[in-house]
Amino acid sequence: MPTLYYEKDADRSLINDRKVAIIGYGSQGHAHALNLRDSGIDVRVGLRAGSSSRSKAEAAGLRVLDIADAAKEADAIMLLLPDTDQADVYERDIAPNLKDGDALLFAHGFNIRYKSIVPPTTVDVAMIAPKGPGHLVRRTYVEGGGVPALIAVENDATGGAKGLALAYADAIGATRAGVLETTFTEETETDLFGEQVVLCGGLTALITAGFETLVAAGYQPESAYFECLHETKLIVDLMYEQGIAGMRFSISSTAEYGDLTRGPRIINDAVRAEMRKVLDEIQDGRFATEWINENKTGLKNYRELQEKGREHPIEKIGAQLRSMMPFISRGRERLEDISGGLES
Prior knowledge:
By secondary structure, this protein is of the alpha/beta class. It has helices at residues 13-16, 27-38, 54-59, 67-73, 83-94, 110-113, 134-142, 161-171, 184-199, 201-216, 221-230, 232-250, 253-266, 269-283, 286-296, 300-310, 313-323, 326-339, and strands at residues 4-5, 19-23, 42-47, 63-66, 76-79, 103-106, 124-130, 149-155, 179-181. It has a 9-stranded mixed sheet.
């Protein structure tokens, strides 16, 4: 069994005397900065000139500096910008200000795994990756809990990189829930695979295909929406709380029999083979290269696919139905209040 680390395993003194710079003030950035600050850590936020998040961070009582100044002042630098922005910011503002013994920290392994960022061997390189969105990292910390996290060490120049990563995880509240050690490679590849095959790409494609199948067969779009999208949350909540077996215990025997006998016909050997192809593209770097090039060439294909998705009938039907369910919009409003419309 893998080892899980908790508060008793972390030595907070390893970060208490560090000067930490949080680069970016988006979903994760604001949560890390505020949690560290409330844990008594000396923290400053590095933002681009003209960033709309500057006033939000300052209103929260945080010191805000330009990115280069924050990097120069700090000895532990956490990069929380979008993956495709990190390399340019690193080369321009951070690399010139790194000192031997500094720690370069990440919440996702993308740029280290695919060598878009190659730090000097004289600095520690570690990852602290909360397994939840920033608003939950912040909210659970304030409530006295925490979100589980992964830690990893890519380069241990000082001999203390793991201890520092664990202390950082403790300071943002993650050790209250549990911290699992991994590697940059494992975190990156499993994270991308999960997003593409299950959590985002696979799920949205499955829901949309189910909706299209029912509508094409003559059923009301509203009924198709409820069955294929709306009720997904109910099933996911059951799995989140009780696992797959617990979900099956909670549904009807008719639903469970359909699950057990028809599910494997949908996720069949051909689908599994395609999953393996997607994983291959992640492992050999083809996906990373494609995504980096898409950003460099103006995101044309990305934006076209976004627009196509927004124009799908499931979105129009969903908007109409959700407008009649005010409890859903109240949940969205609470989320926006927590995140504050934050940017990087």
